[in-house]
Automatic annotation (TrEMBL):
The keyword Membrane applies. It comes from Humitalea rosea. The lineage of its organism: Bacteria, Pseudomonadati, Pseudomonadota, Alphaproteobacteria, Acetobacterales. Residues 1-20 are annotated as: Disordered. This is DUF4190 domain-containing protein. Keywords: Membrane, Transmembrane, Transmembrane helix.
Length: 116
């Protein structure tokens, strides 16, 4: 007769929580930072860098969280992606506007120089 088991069979063991890297938190944080840097004028290049990284981490976090079944990570990834994408779009619009202004003023100043 075999000896009795040391641990009684209580059923399946509980599943561990999903790892922290399978969420969209970094994308969300970078998205918020990119909006803050872009709108308040803190080092505009930093706003562009954080917004591009926010898009990358937002997509990665969304995909990983979706695959792991982590709903909170999916939402954070989507919000980070939207915020970062908005910051990139605002950056592009701002650069086009600034380029247009420089072209207009350059043409005006060039015309004034030719008039002398």
């Amino acid at each position: 007769m075999p000896p009795p088991p040391l641990i009684p069979n209580t059923g399946p063991l509980p599943q561990p929580p999903p790892p922290l890297h399978e969420n969209g938190g970094p994308g969300l944080v970078l998205g918020v930072l990119s909006i803050i840097c872009g709108l308040l004028g803190f080092v505009p290049v930093l706003g562009l860098i954080t917004s591009v990284l926010g898009v990358i981490f937002g997509v990665m976090g969304f995909a990983r969280a979706r695959d792991a079944g982590n709903q909170g990570g999916v939402v954070c990834g989507i919000i980070g992606l939207v915020l970062s994408g908005t910051a990139v779009l605002l950056w592009v619009i701002g650069m086009l506007f600034l380029g247009g202004l420089l072209a207009i003023f350059g043409g005006i100043l060039g015309g004034m120089a030719q008039m002398k």
